[in-house]
Amino acid sequence: MNETCGNRSLYIDWRRDPECLTVWALLTAEERRDDLIAVSIWSVMLSFALISNILILIGIARSATMRSATSYWFIISLAICDIVMAIISIVHLLPATAFHSQYVDKSAWRNIIMLFFYDLFWYTGVLQLGLMACNR
Q: How far apart are alpha carbons 38 and 57 in whole angstroms?
């Protein structure tokens, strides 16, 4: 497998060449352009998700009438689930997309733990959407 790291072309073992696990290597390698585009799009979407859900929590916290209604507690809980999922995606999925050779081991504890919590909060969010629908 011939890949490039920076401007040099050679066989790269990503685990042994930490120089290739940098943002600069992601920006300069020609065959990593698709990874850069995917990481850029994910970064914009996750930043929007994080900021919008934080603004929802701030808006509800500042309004006394919204804090007292039960239905807004479902929205608060859903916003917290979305924030946790966005943080997990920023901490784990963005690096996994950028440097996927380091993250392909399905038996690694980091992958197992991150995917467990991501799935946990995803299913919790779906359950909360169902509860909000029943509440209406």
A: 29
- For the stretch 24-82, pLDDT in tens is 666 666 666 777 788 889 899 999 999 999 999 999 989 888 877 777 888 888 999 99
Bridge partners, residue 4, by sequence: 9
Look-up of token digits 């946990």: 120
> What's the 3-state SS for the chain?
CEEEECCEEEECCCCCCHHHCCHHHHHHCHHHHHHHHHHHHHHHHHHHHHHHHHHHHHHHHHCHHHHHCHHHHHHHHHHHHHHHHHHHHHHHHHHHHHCHHHHCCCCCHHHHHHHHHHHHHHHHHHHHHHHHHHHC
Q: Give CA torsion, residues 31, 37, 43, 45, to 10 deg.
A: -150
